[in-house]
Amino acid sequence: MAELIKTLLSFSERAGEIARAIRQEPKLFSLLVEEKGEGEKNQRFAHDFKTLADVLIQEALRHHVARMIPSLAQWVQGEESAEFTNTLGEKITVRICDTQDGTATLLAKVLDGNKEAADILAALAHRDVTFSPDPHLMERVPDLPVEHLGIWIDPVDSTGEYVRGRPSQAKGSIHQQGLQCVTVLIGVFDRRSGLPVAGIINQPFAIFTESNQSWEGKAYWGVSYGGASIHNLPPSAPGSPKASLPVVVVSSSEDPALHAKLSRRFTVLHATGAGYKQLVVALGLAAASLSSKGSTFRWDSAAPHGLLRAAGGGVVVYRRLTSLTPAQDIAAETLEELQIRYHKPNENPAQPSLQWCNEGGLVAYRDPKVLATVMECVAE
Questions:
Q1: Which of 142, 175, 252, 259 is the most exposed place for a label (fewest CB within 10 A)?
Q2: pTM value?
Q3: Which residues pair with 224 in a beta bridge?
Q4: CA torsion through residues 14, 19, 23, 27, sign
Q5: What mean pLDDT, rounded, does the chain reach?
Q6: DSSP string for residues in 154-203
Q7: Residue 132: CA count within 13 A, CB half-sphere
Q8: Highest-confidence range of 19-28, 106-115, 169-178, 228-237, by mean pLDDT?
Q9: What is the b/e burial string over 31-54, where b = at least 16 CB atoms within 10 angstroms of the residue's CB?
Q10: φ, ψ for residue 54, nearest 5 deg
């Protein structure tokens, strides 16, 4: 099972390379942006985008998983449809072919015959990328129930920031916008319980090197199953003044009234990217990430959830949490019941596109004690 985690980590690096390569070629990048149709738009944005990078990364993961564990390929799910429309109105289903030339030929159809661009992308999709995690951590990875696993992937989370392509300055240690908020999210869950068992978050644009004007990525991963928990996160949160309030990260579209309530006990920061907001919680830069609305989806939370579970935290349904009576501690059994599940769609969604949204909102945390404070704020 360590080999599966290594494969997914290496794939996240491949995904990061694809994302960086497209951004570094402005002419190539301009070819790859296609505005989402009305039915696919996230309700929070006036304009949302789908890129070929999304689809290419998603289908490349399906292809590589199929080569390793054929039975698992059908359980790779993601945000994007593999169907892409070129300027001639032709609909092409993007997939990774058995050969690099075959993939290039298919991509050239999407790119209106632009063979040079198609060749570059096909080479990236087929390139072997090896990630070498700490062997001492890898040897502790427990056996996972492969026959019952499923995978959620968000190939390029925070697509709007990816399209804009601007870096940002951090506020403290947290970026509120910019390329640093872009993440590749791969979450592994148990199809029987619906609970996450592993999570991988790759930041393709984590560090900018001035000397060669290029970006470097970072990858974080964790596994939690059968009583074993392994991760490569920092052991503790960075030091901060004891007098300062803990940080909770929310979207700029969050309810102002809730913002005011949280501000009594937290420093509230706005940040973009569902995956990034949960990542800063996993890294200990924030105590919690909160969304009271159904504006995130399973592909946004599966990877962070798996990573947080490995670190002793989790991602719970906001509405279910706030329906409880505020208390200093939440029983372990209750906390388990509150966790988001990933194996079943929502019942009777308002529209088909919402069948996998986190309709009850979410609260991501690393230390369960923060949940009591959130509950007290909301109850006031």
A1: 252
A2: 0.91
A3: 229
A4: positive
A5: 88
A6: EEEESHHHHHH------BTTB-SSSGGG-EEEEEEEETTT--EEEEEEEE
A7: 0
A8: 169-178
A9: bbebebeeeebeeeeeebbbbbbb
A10: -55, -55
